[in-house]
User: Which sequence fits this backbone?
């Protein structure tokens, strides 16, 4: 480019001045990015959040309803207690940990 | 004393070679052997020569599985584009960006069975997606998402994309952070706006990562199994609409007890993926050579 001889310093100074002059819109731009990021975070985390909330639902809560019920009105840990009693979860967890450590070491 | 020095490299190689031999080379040799036998895992294998491979040629379900596996490849370009996009967005210096990066990575560390199951419940006839759509009046009766043959593969692909974006974007993010600032400066001098900056600087700089992600994700797409297994509850979908190569292999080996036939399928899969990776790497590397 031979038209105008500008140094990168001049360009950076000009950009910084332009950004400073429109500081309000900078906030708006950042907020816009936060919205995008949050939407994507919700989409990513939603299945897990839904499973977690469903696991806390008590006998009075609807698991499948139209419209879907997000928060349990009757939160209880009974489901977790039932799982602990009916399956050797501690054993499973120990197995998983052993595999994880062994794989990490072997790598 | 020199024989000890000559032996040392082999001593270092020995553990890895032994492990590789036992867990990689021996199984491959065993599969090649079993593909020439009729083996139902309970009784000893019976040698039948190339009968399995002849049977392969007429197998309609195998053709369907091949088709589905190759259709699944569309996941790769989608993943590359979306992951690069996510990496660019997440590369900004915003406060709390690390929290977001961690959140996007959660599906990658969650185990494919767990996320597959959670998706199956979401798409169930009485699951969340139907509930929301019905409460908004978009549909009046629950849609049988996973029981609709034409929807099984797309839903599985969506699951793969959703889970893969967080994982692959980390790779691209690392690549982006290694791009020297001078390149962006040069672009700004030439008058680029933000979008052009990324098109002309970021993406070409990410070429090695694009090659890597392209090869890895396309091989994973050809070998997809977990999503199909969980979403179709081991059935492969109505009318075999979700059957892919590895799923068909598993079905033959463990549900029909045709381990010999399954081994023949495995050989076919091996040849296909081998050829695919060679073509893939050659094409992408040639592009890189041309760019210089």
Assistant:
């Amino acid at each position: 480019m031979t038209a105008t001889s500008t140094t990168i310093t001049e360009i950076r100074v000009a950009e910084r001045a332009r950004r400073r002059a429109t500081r309000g819109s900078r906030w708006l731009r950042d907020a816009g990015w936060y919205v995008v990021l949050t939407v994507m975070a919700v989409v990513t985390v939603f299945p897990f959040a839904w499973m977690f909330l469903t696991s806390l639902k008590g006998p009075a809560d609807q698991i499948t309803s139209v419209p879907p019920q997000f928060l349990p009105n009757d939160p209880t840990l009974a489901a977790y207690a039932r799982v602990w009693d009916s399956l050797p979860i501690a054993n499973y967890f120990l197995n998983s940990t052993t595999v994880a450590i062994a794989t990490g070491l072997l790598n | 004393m020199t024989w000890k020095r000559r032996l040392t490299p082999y001593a270092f190689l020995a553990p890895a070679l032994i492990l590789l031999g036992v867990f990689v080379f021996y199984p491959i040799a065993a599969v090649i052997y079993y593909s020439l036998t009729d083996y139902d895992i309970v009784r000893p294998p019976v040698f039948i020569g190339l009968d399995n491979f002849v049977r392969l040629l007429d197998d309609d379900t195998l053709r369907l599985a091949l088709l589905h596996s190759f259709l699944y490849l569309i996941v790769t370009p989608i993943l590359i584009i979306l992951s690069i996009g996510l990496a660019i967005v997440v590369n900004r210096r915003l406060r709390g960006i690390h929290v977001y990066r961690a959140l996007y990575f959660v599906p990658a560390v969650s185990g494919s069975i767990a996320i597959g199951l959670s998706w199956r419940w979401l798409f169930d006839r009485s699951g969340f997606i139907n509930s929301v759509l019905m409460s908004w009046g978009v549909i009046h009766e629950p849609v049988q998402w996973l029981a609709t043959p034409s929807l099984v593969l797309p839903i599985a692909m969506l699951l793969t994309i959703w889970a893969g974006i967080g994982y692959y974007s980390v790779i691209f993010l690392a690549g982006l952070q290694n791009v020297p600032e001078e390149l962006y400066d040069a672009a700004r001098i030439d008058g680029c706006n933000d979008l052009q900056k990324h098109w002309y600087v970021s993406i070409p700089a990410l070429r090695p990562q694009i090659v890597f992600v392209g090869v890895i994700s396309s091989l994973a797409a050809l070998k997809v199994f977990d999503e199909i297994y969980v979403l179709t509850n081991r059935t492969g979908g109505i009318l075999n609409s979700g059957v892919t190569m590895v799923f068909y292999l598993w079905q033959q080996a463990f549900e029909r007890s045709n381990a010999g036939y399954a081994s023949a399928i495995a050989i076919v899969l091996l040849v296909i993926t081998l050829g695919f990776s060679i073509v893939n790497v050659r094409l992408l590397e040639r592009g890189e050579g041309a760019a210089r």
Remarks:
- Chain A has a mean pLDDT of 82.
